[in-house]
Amino acid sequence: MSATTATPAAGRLVLLNPGPVNVHEDVRAAMTSPDQCHREPEAAALMTRVREKATRVSGGDDAFTSVLLAGSGTAALEAAFSSIVPADGRILILDNGNYGERLWRIVDVHGIPHRRMEFGWCNPIDVDAVDRALAEDPGITHVGLVHHETSTGMLNPLREIGAVVAGHGRQFAVDAISSLGSEQLDLRTDHIDWCVGTANKCLEGLPGVSFVTAPRHRLEELKDVPTRTFYLDLYGHFISQDRRNAPLFTPALQVMTALEEALDRSLREGVEGRGARYTALAEQIRTGLAERGIRFLLPAGQRANSVTNVYVPEGMTYDELHDGLKTEGYVVYSTQEQLEGVFRVANMGQLDGDDVAGFLAAFDRVVAKYADRAG
User: Fold this and answer.
1) Which of 322, 284, 279 is nearest to 303 (CA)?
2) Which H/E stretch holds residue 106?
3) Is residue 1 scored above 60 in pLDDT?
4) What is the pTM of this model?
């Protein structure tokens, strides 16, 4: 175990929660861009550049485009899942955690015909079962999947499921909110028709802008899909941004400026580079926690490269651990009620090995404090 007593710089919290993340100073500085009107040419040019870069970071080319929305990742997710299923269609939701359940809740609240396949929290999605479901039910037109299920830290088999969905001629909608930028994902290779991303996780931007990336012809086809919502009408946003070169509603321009800087940094580092950086940090976290006897929620082969879910040490509560670590300058994240006693340590964002070493040292101090109390 490390003997370091390093603490974060004064005023800095090390965010070990799965977004928002610690961002680069250049991204933060971009938030100070001048005030401007969203209907002016400069704002239109910014929107066009960000759309193009969001498409590129998703592995898309000129046959694809992105639609920007002011809001968290859930805004783009609801825009996509409430807009893409036609009146005579039905979507199959693959659910093995809190965010798979969120997909089901979105289509359910909009009254969209659907089928929900629940695999259970912490259980891998059975690709063969998905194959059989599609073979048995020709009425299913779309399949929805969460790539990185952060409620458990599980990375779902995107490529394998995409191949199955494409093999049955159905459309594939992916929540890539917590994977895009650090995990392998390619719109063409993975047969993704609808990809939902956000600024403030592995792309290392700031909260407030999210997007849907899709083939242009898929977005054009939405003309014939009934509108189910006003603000989150994906086709309306697409037409306004793509045909009129203007936002449908007022965008978060300063956040969009910061996202452009974050996308530039993401494209320079590349998915492989960022994935390698995150993997090294995750391994440092996991090795350190394993040395301390902390139990992991998932086996090694199922974990994403940016979040580690582990059990709270015996003899203390999550709140005691969280509050003690925050006092030391480190923020961890709880899980949902279904996994009470489990917490998340994320390594997204602008973190380095010293941040992880400092966290592990702070973890030792907090745990020792409660061990002494119990003794």
Assistant:
1) 279
2) helix 98-109
3) no
4) 0.95
